[in-house]
Each structure stands twice: as structure tokens, then as C-alpha cells.
Write a structure and sequence with these properties.
Helix content: 40-55%
Radius of gyration: 21 Å
Strand content: 15-25%
Shape: flat
Number of domains: 2
Oligomer: single chain
Distance between the termini: 23 Å
Length: 211
């Protein structure tokens, strides 16, 4: 299983010459001297371990590095000049930061924003990034028990939220509640729009959707 964390932000878009090749109507409506055009950008990191908060903090470190350096993906020269610095951060995080162990359960990493990687407690449940706090906070006790019953009966379970960061942990918690049983049917914690047809499947499922 793979876990991911991401942050999205808007950055100033300066490469107007690229728009001439793709969107002439936008160029005609845009006053280059007075208007500012921003592009949506997203940076993502994947891991086999559910350290969502730590990964998100590391991405914010990379984001702050991008902002403080004044580089944008639309300015190739600045981006190329600062890529070695970003690579140093990535290399250190991936290859030199040790994984927490029972003998050293806490790993402290000193970046611009300090990171703390903590070995999850062994409480008998599978380690999968489940957030029971978010589950109870957003659904309440009664709805959580109802959801647990539907999962035990292998019903179709669709969890909807506008916050994808919360949705993943909640759906993982629903799956974890079945322990020691294992869900054998389709399971998609965060279903993309392109896979929406799976909701019409004639079989039980546990799916999280944001749209």
C-alpha cells in the first residue's frame, strides 16, 4: 500500500509566450502590464508508511524554499539554478534520515521547520494512517457505529467529504475497525473522478469521494 501527502498553491505565472500556443482567447483578455496570472501548482510525496503529518511538513519546507528563493515553475532559469538545493533536501530526507525503531522511536530532523518522526504505538491495530479522532469528530458516535455495522454486513459504504486530507484518514479508520477481519471487496479511500463508475458496481465497497 502506498500513502501520499500533497500541498497545492498558486504561483505567479510569467511565461506568457506559452499561452500563445495554447489559449489565444485568454491572451486577448489579459492585460499583461496590469493583470497578474496565477497557475495552480501541486507537489506530492509518496511513502509506504502513513506519516501524513511529517510528509506534509516536509513538503511545506520545500514550498518555503521555493517561495523564499523566488523561483517558479514558469521561470525555467530560476528553477534550474535552485534545483541542486532542492535535491540536497530530498537526498537528505530520503537517504540520511533513519526510520524510527523500538530503540529509537523518535527521530528529530532539523530543517527550517523541524520535523519529528515518531514510531507508531503497537496497539494491536494495523498501521495504515487511520484517524479515529477525525472519524468520531466528523461522524459522531451513532453514525460511526452505523457505518461499522454496514461494513460488517458488507454493504456499499460511500463516505463523502470536501476535505480530502480528512477523508483518507476517516475511510482508513472505517477499514481498521473491521480488524481482525479484512475487507475483501473494492476499497478506495480517495476515489478520483475518473473512477466514479465504480459506484455502480454490483458488489460491496468502501469508497471515499470528495466530489
Amino acid at each position: 500500500k502506498q500513502y501520499g501527502a500533497c500541498i497545492s498553491f498558486y504561483e505567479l505565472f510569467n511565461a506568457y509566450d506559452r499561452l500563445l500556443l495554447t489559449n489565444n482567447d485568454l491572451i486577448n483578455r489579459l492585460d499583461i502590464d496590469n493583470d497578474h496570472l496565477y497557475a495552480s501548482t501541486c507537489i506530492v510525496i509518496f511513502s509506504r508508511h502513513p506519516f501524513f503529518d511529517t510528509l506534509r511538513r516536509f513538503l511545506f519546507t520545500i514550498y518555503q524554499l521555493i517561495v523564499s528563493s523566488g523561483m517558479t515553475t514558469s521561470n525555467n532559469n530560476q528553477l534550474i539554478d535552485h534545483i541542486p538545493l532542492i535535491e540536497q533536501y530530498l537526498k537528505h530526507f530520503f537517504y540520511h534520515v533513519p526510520f524510527p525503531s523500538p530503540s529509537k522511536p523518535r527521530i528529530f530532523v532539523e530543517y527550517d521547520e523541524p520535523l519529528l518522526i515518531v514510531l507508531p504505538e503497537d496497539h494491536g491495530l494495523p498501521q495504515n494512517g487511520a484517524s479515529f479522532v477525525d472519524l468520531l469528530k466528523n461522524l459522531g458516535t451513532d453514525n460511526t457505529l452505523t457505518l461499522f455495522l454496514f461494513a460488517l454486513l458488507e454493504s456499499k459504504v460511500l463516505v463523502h467529504s470536501l476535505r480530502s486530507s480528512v477523508l483518507t484518514g476517516v475511510v482508513e479508520a472505517v477499514n481498521s475497525m473491521l480488524f481482525p477481519f479484512q475487507w475483501q471487496c473494492p476499497y478506495i479511500p480517495l476515489c478520483p473522478l475518473a473512477l466514479s463508475d465504480v459506484l455502480s458496481a454490483p458488489c460491496p465497497f468502501i469508497i471515499g469521494k470528495t466530489i
